[in-house]
Amino acid sequence: MEIRAKCNFDLEAIKALTHLSVFGKSNPKSKFRVWFIISLVLMAFIIFEMVFFSDIGYLWMLCLALFILLLECYLYFLLPKIRYKNLAKIKDAENEFVFCDDTLKVFTRCDEYRGEAEMEYSLFPRVYETSKYFFLFQTNNQVYIVDKSTIEGGTAEGIRNKLVANTKCKYIICEY
User: Fold this and answer.
1) CA 43 to CA 66: how far, in whole Å?
2) What is this structure's pTM?
3) N or C: where does the chain have the smaller number of CB atoms within 10 Å of the terminal CB?
4) Residues 96 and 81 placed together within one structural domain of the fold
5) Domain ends where: 70, 85, 100?
6) Residues 103/119, Cβ–Cβ less than 8 Å
7) From CA 70, how far away is CA 74, in angstroms rounded?
8) Which helix (H) or strand (E) holds 79?
9) CATH no. for residue 100?
């Protein structure tokens, strides 16, 4: 039985992949909010110390807290857009996936490139699953992104069962 799915390398998919690589399997929105609030509270405390106790010695701590706050904003908001722009020729490429019993067939189409590949499930070193996507890692730098909303001829659970049964990899279900 074949299950078909698609995915475009659009900004939303690249954003999900970037958040997965940066924040791991925890929810990126909640992790960002927690660190953002911690940074703001730390900055407020440091400013309070500096103003009311006239202690300029905390200035380096304020700079560090501000750096952490800006780094969080960069990782959450800007890095996905930068990665998407760097895709160059495969930006908005459309991948079609056919999940067979023991292999995955991939058909790629974009303005500059057309190709197809067939891989055994056992070649994937790890697979991540979120509420919207499957991320099938070929290597640490190459990944297939499968959009769950485009599944035809089966369900996400059917794909999950094929991947878990045929892979010797880590199958990780993310919290978001």
Assistant:
1) 7
2) 0.88
3) N
4) no
5) 85
6) yes
7) 6
8) helix 79-85
9) 2.30.29.30
Counting Cβ atoms within 10 Å, is residue 28 exposed (0-12), middle (13-18) or buried (19+)? buried
Provide the domain count of the chain. 2
Domain that holds residue 129: 3-10+92-173
53 plus 73 within the same structural domain = yes
pLDDT given for residue 132 in this prediction: 96
**Domain C-terminal end among 37, 66, 85:** 85
Residues 6+ apart with CB under 8 A from 143: 17, 135, 136, 137
- So what's the pLDDT on residue 88? 77
Q: Are residues 102 and 167 both part of a single domain?
A: yes
pLDDT tens per residue, range 27-83: 999 999 999 999 999 999 999 988 888 778 888 889 999 999 999 999 999 999 999
DSSP state string for 10-33 = -HHHHHHHHHHHHHTTS-HHHHHH
- Return the DSSP state at 124: -
Contacts (Cβ under 8 Å, ≥6 apart) of 156: 129, 134, 148
* Residue 152 confidence (pLDDT): 97
Is there a single domain that holds both residue 105 and residue 154?
A: yes
